[in-house]
Fold these 3 entries.
Entry 1:
Amino acid sequence: MTKGAALGPLQLIAIALGAWVIADLSFHFRPTNYFGGSSDEQRYLESALRWITNGPHPGRTHWSLRHPLVLSLVASFRQFDVSMWALQLVPRLYGDLLVSFSTVMMARAAGLRAAGTWLLLALFTPALHQSATNLGPEIVELAFAAISGWLFWEARGGGRGAGLAMAGSGLFIALAIMTRETAACLLPIYAVAWWRGRMGWPLAFAFVAGFLPPLLIDNGWLWLRSGDPLYRLHVDSAHTGIYSAHLTGGVYHGRVFLNPDLASRWTQAGPIKLFWLTDPIMNFFAAPEFALLFFAWALLFFSRHTRPARGSATARLMPWLLAVTIACYLIVTWVLTLRPQPRYYLVALYAASIAVALLLNGPAATRAAQRMRQIALALVLVCGGLTILLSPDRQRDARLILPWLKAHPDARLHIDPANRDRIAFPAILAGVNNRITKAPARIGQVQVRAFTPKTEQPGRWRQVAMLQGPWLFPYINHPRRLVIERRVE
């Protein structure tokens, strides 16, 4: 793939800036937003605030050890003050970095048309959109892993700058693994590629020179602060001891690696829930978060009209992209034994997006090939677009409740404990947190609840206000409705 080799530096800079702006604008549309409560986002927020108030410290949970994410959030808060905007800026910037860098590298590798196609596919992929608009490690891990993969690809042939590119590949995959261990799925791919490509020991040493320092510094610091040389491993291994509603029994105290018993206890996140071993694979093709990318990949590859010509660069690349997908599945499902949900398989999804972009831009020899590519592209864009469009705004209750509290400065609002925890951070930022309580409302007090047919005794409650969010699609996606009511008896 050398179509984009003639692109000059100014053209590549223009492509990078254009992709960055387009991605950033798209991430402002229907963002996932901060959830709060018992969510992972809340854990990362708490870890960052603890760094700000108490200084550097070794965390006690696996959330607090995701240092690339936590320290990025600390830096954002220190630069822009603690705010929802500064919180959301972190994943969005990593999403912009991922899209911009990948578009440039696709342009260099396969040409502008393939790069534009990949950009379109990426922005219409719900799992990527959700990760870039939600405070979590997924987009950080994927950005670092993608940069590492492309730098490895650049260095594979040796030549000028190959050692520096390979050292960069090692550095960024180390940062990806520090963010979340699922990125380790690329390491066996690199090992096989190095062996089959006969890249030589100098490039291997360059990779190690970039790979080891961040891991040694991070783990050495944790050892110094905790007295445990394997502190990260021990903390990460204890994550199933923390209650999870997605784990049968809530907690699990057995081995967390290579444990089929643990794997069978996780509840499946996708639409297909038959058997834990095969569900993730089938959900690759069925989960709306993946926008039918894996289905489009299979459709285009196995169709005789769009199958890449034997010996072509695209045909030679397909086994490697498939190997990345399989390695990602094995690492998540078998080795780390994590809950099989779309956000853990983003490396596989990224490989699928590259494969589909390349297959969509193959030579259109026949009208049947053009039609097949149009169908595949339409499936991805329609499925992905609708999933993003219909995804709920997780700050919708806060957007309704907090303005009402500001407009009624004497009101004190009672709310159920789960929702109270979810809106705590926005309420603190709005200065009304002390006027929201989890306690049940007594006579004369005001509560808020979701609008449902009333089941209370007649005359027990009197409606004070009805808060309604915006309509999106009449009769399809109904607006959020909350009832403010006063207890009268």
Entry 2:
Amino acid sequence: MGILSGLISAASTTLRRGLMAPAGAKSAMDIWAADGKIRVKEWSDQRIANARKSLAEIWRDIRTEGKITYQSTVRDQIANYPESSAEYQILRYARNSALPPEEVLYQDVKKRRILKRMDLRKLVTKSGVPETITDIRIDQINKSSVTASNGHLKKFIFPTDLASSLERNATEIDENEYLKGKIDARKCDLWCVPISSRNHAVAMVINIKDARVECLDSGGPNKAQFFLNAGPLCDRIFKAVAAYVGSTRRDVDFAKFEWRFPRVPCQPAGSNACAIYRLRFLEEWGAGGDGMDLTSKFQGWDEEYWHAKERVKICASILTDDSNAILEEVKEKARRRHTMIKRRQLIAIGLLILLV
């Protein structure tokens, strides 16, 4: 009996040691053979978490298949870019909520502007648009206007802080800050000013050629509402631009200018898309006739999530712009992340096949 009980005790000790994980093991389970030479280790906890997350994402896509939502519109717009393109990979990288929100993805050293992931996530969600993003996009539009007009700018869009400076009791346009001597006021016919007042973004265009002030408001052509939001500020802006332009164009009688409210697309009720619509208005607006109607230039603008598509386009154009000093660095990070996600998706699909 003593020999038999000893053998049973030794066998139970060996079995117990085999089923116990070694000290300090981070895996869910370690299995050792009796001789201690063969070891089979389960995936690390991080890989398990990643696989579960991928499965959750696949299940979410299955549940929302065929249903048009804001997020599905954003995903579809991103998917319009080739998967191998910088735009596709950077957009996926920028809106990834699992990555640090404080990471800088855009940096303009010359103008001291930076955009973090949390700023770009605001752009591609239903949130309001940061003024820095608006100003970067305005610079792009101005740059393209110069190229299209062979250096003779017909339209100039001021940055958002012009309205802010005039609201702070400034009375004149700072030529050194805004114009830098690159614009011939005698040839520029459209002077565009973005205005933000009472949490609503609008724009006013001083049209020298047609002698009128055109008010562009995605809230609708409601004169009373427009002036309620930005009336006093519009008056100051008009006087400041008139003083600047009038110093070189003596033939312009600003006292005879008319205030007009052209027909433009309206944003969805309850949305925070006014800044997105304003940017598109400023990009498309030109010195046309009295019957100018911007709705003809906005294909699908009446769709519920049209502005989601515009947000994605603006985000892609800003991140890949040549003014981004860290563009190549961001491209490389996005490429590596894309490769890792593709591998994770293959693992998740393999798990699904095994489960089925």
Entry 3:
Amino acid sequence: MEAILREILGKLTSIESHFLQFQQEVRERFAQIDERFQQIDERFAQIDERFAQIDERFKQIDERFAQIDERFKQVDERFKQVDERFAQIDKRFAQIDERFANMESRLDALEQEMKETNERISRLEEEMCDVKKRLEHVETQLSDVKETVQRLEIQLADDVRTLLQNIYKKIDEKGFEIYALNKRLLRVEASIEQLQSQV
């Protein structure tokens, strides 16, 4: 009986020793698990911090996209203005095309007028040739008339000189007559004064 008890006591001692060893291993394992959980918690804290940074980054990205949307809105507005300007330009080009068409019509009319003017100039040149010939004929006649006038001038100068000489002679003769009349008039005035004084 005592041997059995000793055997049981030895087994209990062995079990207790194994239990203590197992308890120590369990404690070490739990310590390792706690350390691992602490590392996991730290890792999760880092992950949370990283997610916070990512959220902040996404917030910045959202703000950037909002700015981009605003810029696109401005770009759309600018494109709308550009489209309006192109519409105005197309309208202006249509007006320019119309004006070019009018100018072409006017140029055609001017070309026709120039053609008619060239024909008239050709006729005028022919007429100018005729006029030139007639002027040459007139110049010849004027030369003849000039010679005749020169002869007449010489002849008239002689006639005028003779006529002036006759006029000067008559003036001299009339001058003597006027002098005699003045003397007679003076005598008559003197006689009238004497008669007035006697009266």
